[in-house]
Amino acid sequence: MRWHAGRGRVPGVEAAGAVRTECLVTAALELDGVSRAFAGRPALEGFTLRVEPGEVVAIIGLNGAGKTTAMRILVGRLTADRGTARVLGTDPAHLPRAASLRFGHVVDTPLVYGELTVRENLRCAGRLHGFSAIGAARAAEQAMSRFELEPWADVRGRALSQGNRQRVGIAGAVLHRPMALVLDEPTSALDPRGVVIVRELVRELAVNSCAVLVSSHHLDEVARIADRIAVVHAGRVIGSLGPGETNLERRFFAMALADDESRAATGSVRDGRP
Length: 274
Ligand SMILES: Nc1ncnc2c1ncn2[C@@H]1O[C@H](COP(=O)(O)OP(=O)(O)OP(=O)(O)O)[C@@H](O)[C@H]1O
Hints:
- Helix content is 33%, strand content 21%.
- The chain is α/β, with parallel strands linked by helices.
- It has a 6-stranded mixed β-sheet, with helices on both faces. Strands 2-1-4 form a 3-stranded antiparallel β-sheet.
- The radius of gyration is 19 Å and the shape is globular.
- Bound molecules: adenosine-5'-triphosphate.
- One of its GO terms (molecular function) is ATP hydrolysis activity.
- One of its GO terms (biological process) is response to antibiotic.
- Belongs to the ABC transporter superfamily.
- This is ABC transporter ATP-binding protein.
């Protein structure tokens, strides 16, 4: 069953043996006019972004632009002060089990238990994503192979290098083949081989109708992975760039500068911004 943009059916997690469910969706991942402040200081102001099934959208922005805050709202870790967040058509703060079984994310620290080995961590992730014990064991072996983690299969999470922890975290977030995926700077600690593994995996998931939102500071990497690049600045999406465009870096800075100038002209520059 394919997953269609617009109102349509959401496929079940067959590998997990879950019952197929139907629900109405508008976009796989959606933030609509979302605002959020911390101690009165705005982090997001009217942040709007949609990711359709089969689409990979990258968000780029300067430090403090609001990328992680937007992702935290999408994964239900923060609530919006205003506006709407939707994941697979539902409120991420109250995600029903059927939707959570189709959702994967790594935002902030990868979920890797220090006391468990890599194999145990991945089996645990499989169980959390609805697999039977046998299914989780099989999925863990496949994930270790895919992420080239076999040499560390019996190493405890606390003894892993930062890059291998990131591999385990991402492997655990995708081993159930999600239909919506949120990854915050997924390649920040990865070696070149790990970067390729994540890139190929993201593209493969998208081919199978998964909607992927990924943040990064590396324009070169983003250009290779994304269908669309959303530029985040001062808590909003201020425009988009095509991954095939030339001079991405120069265009990114030009957009941010133009936004600053326009906000300064209208007196709406964010309070307290450096
Ligand atoms: N828990 C919090 N308490 C107070 N302020 C916060 C909190 N989380 C984020 N902020 C503020 O919100 C703004 C946006 O932060 P956010 O982490 O979303 O930016 P970012 O684009 O992900 O930055 P970076 O590229 O540095 O990771 C910043 O000014 C940050 O200081």
